[in-house]
Amino acid sequence: MTTADSIEQAIAELLPHFGERLSRSQSVCEHHGHGEGYHAQHAPQAVIFAETTEDVAHALRVCNAHRAPVIPFGAGTSLEGQVNAIEGGISIDLSRMTGLLELNTGDMDCRVQAGITRQDLNLLLRDEGLFFPVDPGGEATIGGMCATRASGTGAVRYGTIRENVLGLTVVLADGRIMRVGRRVRKSAMGYDLTHLMIGSEGTLGIITEVQLRLHGIPETMAAAVCQFETLADCVETAVQVMQMSVPIGRMELLDDVQMDACIRYAKLDGYRPIPTMFFEFEGGPEAVREQIATVEAIADDNNGSAFTWSTQAQERAALWKTRHAVFWACLAYRPGYTGISTDAIVPISALTEMILGAKHDIEESGITAPIVGHIGDGNFHTVMLVPPGEAEVEKARALDHKIIARALSLGGSASGEHGVGLAKIGFMPAEHDAVALDVMRTIKRALDPNNILNPGKLLPPPAPPC
Ligand SMILES: Cc1cc2nc3c(=O)[nH]c(=O)nc-3n(C[C@H](O)[C@H](O)[C@H](O)COP(=O)(O)OP(=O)(O)OC[C@H]3O[C@@H](n4cnc5c(N)ncnc54)[C@H](O)[C@@H]3O)c2cc1C
């Protein structure tokens, strides 16, 4: 059992090493006690700003000896209560670890420190003709993205962070430094510890370096928009694009309410607040033209209107900036309200039933909840906008649970990308059988026997014996 004393003892022992890089300021601790989700803040007792793998190893050796909880912190953009220090402890902030340590342009890979953001990495890569494609909406760090198994609008073509990580440097709970993975596209050598760490949400180790796959910036890129009178036609278009294996770059659905919020927030002229699809096409000029023609024909068949496309970089950038700003557009739609995001995912063939069902659930609940989706993956979010008050949050939770239950009944998952944190722990037994949960707990105990790494997250406590 952690005591306040053991945390204080760890802090006293860490102070000589970290000096000013160990902060006990109330505002710094509070900032590290929450992410971008709606969960109540739990501030750690101290925050350490790490700069090297050895810093992290030293901190973990000390915290493990004192049984003091440690919460890794990237940019704090996670949405499910992942960084909240619910048992107190010490937050290890990696946002100063921003180095590009190695760039192999010929092999199209690189090694970065875990605190670099994807935006900063792409600025460093731009002149090499390369880019890193995983693009969650927040300004997340690469380490945080690995820890939450993040993805974004580019996943339909390039996969999630899981498909784009080749190897990791991880500091284990006892301070040992583990290097896993090689600079190769595949390897059949033993247990895949790299991918065990992907999605572990800071509960198995702290990632300090990441070996990433990179991609060439495509020769031609075009963006297109198409609007639909009905949500069913809009979703059906997406399903058919996927079923026809069009190598789409990105494909995002915005329902009528989300479009209304975006039109107001981004001052989008010339669009109506009706279900809308944003597309991006990539490749050689001929291939792009072919993809556009195929998708336009599919949209036509499904009563799409106003199919417009452009290869102009500025127009493309404006469109995708609008898409990445949907969360803020939602918050501006109902000032003073909190946005609680759902993150269900289903197999493509179940998408129409799922999204129309979710829309029905939303209307029945009376909650304003725009729908926006990484529709090509079967993943979509509803941003439930709730006024202050626990009763309203409860109503939103009930809607979230209804949508998740629907997704699970269609063979889907409670979270396509935001992760478990605190919010989705209750759904772990619905998605994983008792044996799988037992194996997960065994792994956790083996790697972190003192349960210091982000305790209380991801894994539900075992059911009491009958
Ligand atoms: C507006 C908005 C849009 C978003 N859109 C998307 C989206 O499209 N797709 C998506 O996947 N997510 C999205 N998110 C959620 C969020 O951006 C991701 O979960 C992101 O991967 C979190 O990264 P972070 O650096 O902020 O991590 P943090 O929030 O700091 O941490 C997240 C978790 O990872 C752990 N952690 C952090 N760094 C490390 C490390 N180096 N080693 C081990 N554990 C670590 C933490 O302990 C915590 O459990 C969005 C969030 C916002 C606010």
Automatic annotation (TrEMBL):
GO terms for molecular function: D-lactate dehydrogenase (cytochrome) activity; D-lactate dehydrogenase (NAD+) activity; FAD binding. Its cofactor is FAD. Residues 40-217 form the FAD-binding PCMH-type domain. Pfam families: FAD-oxidase_C (PF02913), FAD_binding_4 (PF01565). The keyword Transmembrane does not apply. Keywords: FAD, Flavoprotein, Oxidoreductase, Transit peptide. GO terms for biological process: lactate catabolic process. PROSITE patterns: FAD_PCMH. It is an enzyme of class 1 (oxidoreductase). Its EC number is 1.1.2.4. Belongs to the FAD-binding oxidoreductase/transferase type 4 family. This is D-lactate dehydrogenase (cytochrome). It comes from Komagataeibacter sucrofermentans. The lineage of its organism: Bacteria, Pseudomonadati, Pseudomonadota, Alphaproteobacteria, Acetobacterales.
